[in-house]
Amino acid sequence: MRLFELLLLLSNLGLFALTVGLKKGRRRSPVFALSGVATLILIIHGTVEGYRIQLFFLYGITIIYLVLSSYSYFKKWLLKNPPVHVGLGLYRYSDHADRNRRAHVRFSCISTP
Q1: Where are the domains of the chain?
Q2: What letter would DSSP give residue 64?
Q3: Which run of H or of E encompasses 49?
Q4: Alpha carbon distance 77, 113 (integer Å)
Q5: pLDDT in single tens digits along all 113 residues of the chain
Q6: Taking the chain, what is the end-to-end CA distance rounded to the nearest angstrom?
Q7: DSSP structure class, residue 102
Q8: Per the UniProt record, which residue ranges are transmembrane (predicted)?
Q9: Confidence (pLDDT) at 6
């Protein structure tokens, strides 16, 4: 195996160990961080060494870990701050901690007063 293939395999084994070893409430941040590292290794592996058909299962596991850990990491924030449609496909996220009841616009190029 090449260097980045081995790193990708070890990072996925580490993700599995964190998922099994940590309690449900404590695993959200470490699994999210390590899945980001694994995805970065996957991108570097693809650009430097090229993808191989034999490792598509490993690539799929990496992407599944990234999607599931991202959902788990941002689920609590999204439930607390649901998106509000402001038109033209743009959404704003209200921040309940803000005492002035102003809306913060995120992920858009249009700001609201």
Answers
A1: 3-80, 81-113
A2: H
A3: none
A4: 23
A5: 789 899 999 999 998 898 888 877 777 788 888 999 999 999 999 999 899 999 999 999 999 999 988 888 877 766 776 666 556 556 555 555 444 444 444 444 555 55
A6: 56
A7: P
A8: 31-48, 55-74
A9: 92
Q: Residue 90: beta bridge partners?
A: 87
Angle at CA 58, nearest 5°, toward 53 and 61? 135
- Let me know: does 81 contact 95? Beta carbons within 8 Å: yes
Q: What is the DSSP string of 4-31?
A: HHHHHHHHHHHHHHHHHHS-TTTSHHHH
**Cβ proximity of 30 and 22 under 8 Å:** yes
Nearest to 6 by CA among 35, 38, 32: 38
Dihedral sign for Cα 10, 16, 19, 20, please. Answer: negative
